[in-house]
């Protein structure tokens, strides 16, 4: 099929490359010239495992192209919308400017046949419920033979390629009209023929359900993380160990063991802004009481950052000013360079504003951080960052940090304090090697 993807960020660029991998002829459109220039040469504009290979392969065969010229989308049979929906400045709601612009671009430049099978617009961005209905009306009033489906995206950064090629489910939000719904489904089925053939579960729903599935899933995940972080607060108050607690409750398969890792909390370009936009939308719909629990989820999450700063202060004996803090990991999770709403970055910034001298290492986001916040002192080697530090903080669970040998490093810092912001280090091993270990919800420090 001929496909266009509007918006080539973490979601759109991977989606475009994966659609090419599925055999389609794809054009990715973005307004960011620098990003497009890189992608068009087959060079990734962000860190994502497996993406560079796909990109190089399909840009090389011209099955995948990137452009800033909207006229190049005219022949597509499906236009995917993958533009950003960030949090509005100073408000909880989502900024829908980019989605509106993307729809306007499609309406202006798509060239569907006047009769016969319509061209499909498929929304992938995460949007407030009700958006699809509005877009469907805009498409209907365009006078062009365009039809809308809502097809939310569940990929995880760090696993984005596998999640797109082998999704754990596909969700289609289709027009209520049965005949039109069947046509939209036929087009999406053709697009996703390969994952469907290998048994990917498909959930077909109406527009609002499809929009809600995405924010409901993210709200559930955020709630699970904040739940275990609330238990971490209780463990700290009582001498319990939240890692053992999580293990024990996780054996109950009604609860499950995933997403029960206490630490400095969730971040990134999705979970925080999605739960906030969901609350804002519930307010507009007059059902804000249904989601008041998400306020608590957000508050618990943000308290984790305060707690990490407090632990750093405790480790250095109270005053951070003039103390050196080594921060290992600055992205919101491993295997990405995404710094959006990263708890690690927020914590590093707070430590710096209290007068601490920072030394940051990150396997993927070092160069990006060096350009954006040179005051945080990015280092290329873990040893250089740790040397003469008063406290070392592991804030992202990159494999490189999880596998550190505490005995080999203990002579480097000025004082061997380690704050394990992700509960990924073995407290006994680190304390036996001579470190003072501070965990998140593991009772007293060892
Ligand atoms: P992003 O900021 O990385 O990418 C958005 C891209 O859209 C940018 O490159 C921007 O230049 C481009 N853009 C903005 N306006 C445009 C326009 N009018 N025409 C063409 N391009 C335009 O954001 P992202 O992380 O890729 O997220 C995109 C959407 O997908 C969001 O709604 C997000 O919530 C959702 N989502 C993201 C993920 C993820 O893991 N990143 C997962 C699922 C869903």
Break the fold down into its secondary structure elements and pairings.
Blueprint: E1 2-6, H1 10-21, E2 25-29, H2 33-40, H3 51-60, E3 64-67, E4 78-81, H4 97-109, E5 119-123, H5 131-140, E6 146-150, H6 160-165, E7 170-174, H7 178-191, H8 193-197, E8 202-206, H9 207-238, H10 242-250, H11 271-284, H12 292-315, E9 324-328, H13 343-353, E10 357-361, H14 366-372, H15 382-386, E11 391-394, H16 399-402, H17 406-409, E12 417-420, H18 427-432, E13 436-438
Parallel strand pairs: 1-2, 1-4, 2-3, 4-5, 5-6, 7-8, 9-10, 9-11, 11-12, 12-13
Q: Can you identify the CATH class of the largest domain? A: Alpha Beta
Major sheet: size, sense and barrel closure? 6 strands, parallel
* Number of helical stretches of at least 4 residues: 18
Bound molecules: nicotinamide-adenine-dinucleotide
Q: What count of structural domains?
A: 2
Helical content (DSSP H or I, runs of 4+): 40-55%
By CATH, the topology of the largest domain is Rossmann fold
Please characterize this protein's 3D structure.
- The protein is globular.
- The protein has 446 residues and is of the alpha/beta class.
- It has a 6-stranded parallel beta sheet with strand order 3-2-1-4-5-6, sandwiched between helices.
- Helix 9 (207-238) runs parallel beside helix 12 and helix 12 packs across helix 13 (343-353).
- Helix 13 (343-353) links the parallel strand 9 and strand 10 (357-361).
- The chain is built from 18 helices and 13 strands.
- It folds into 2 domains: 2-200, Rossmann fold; 222-438, NAD(P)-binding Rossmann-like Domain (Rossmann fold, 3-Layer(aba) Sandwich), CATH 3.40.50.720.
- The chain binds nicotinamide-adenine-dinucleotide (NAD).
- Nicotinamide-adenine-dinucleotide binds at residues 6-12, 29-32, 35, 82-85, 98, 101-102, 105, 125-126, 153, 155, 157, 269-270.
- Substrate binds at residues 154-157, 214, 259-263, 267, 333.
- Catalyzes the conversion of UDP-glucose into UDP-glucuronate, one of the precursors of teichuronic acid.
- It is an enzyme of class 1 (oxidoreductase).
- Belongs to the UDP-glucose/GDP-mannose dehydrogenase family.
- One of its GO terms (biological process) is UDP-glucuronate biosynthetic process.
